[in-house]
TrEMBL record:
SUPFAM superfamilies: F-box domain
Annotated source species: Medicago truncatula (Barrel medic)
Name used for this protein in its record: Putative F-box domain-containing protein
Stored Pfam families: F-box (PF00646)
UniProt lineage: Eukaryota, Viridiplantae, Streptophyta, Embryophyta, Tracheophyta
CDD domains: F-box_AtFBL13-like (cd22160)
Amino acid sequence: MSLLETSTAPVAVDRISNLPDDILIHILSSFPTKQAFVTSILSKRWKHLWCYVPDVELEFVDDKAEEAKNSLFDKFVYSVLVSRSCG
């Protein structure tokens, strides 16, 4: 293909970002919390959408948790809750 020819490759259209926030939040609510959070890097518009997902699932699996591990988990939960304040 020469420089003067144009490509006929289809252009990807971002239709999901054109949806209203309420719809996007509903979609994000079907994701595990971690994946919903990861969507915050997609764009400025998506940055805080995950904060409005009504449920947060945090998992800590350690049957023999030591006090230090519990403290780390407490700090993690606190940081998630603070970041959900979206401010």
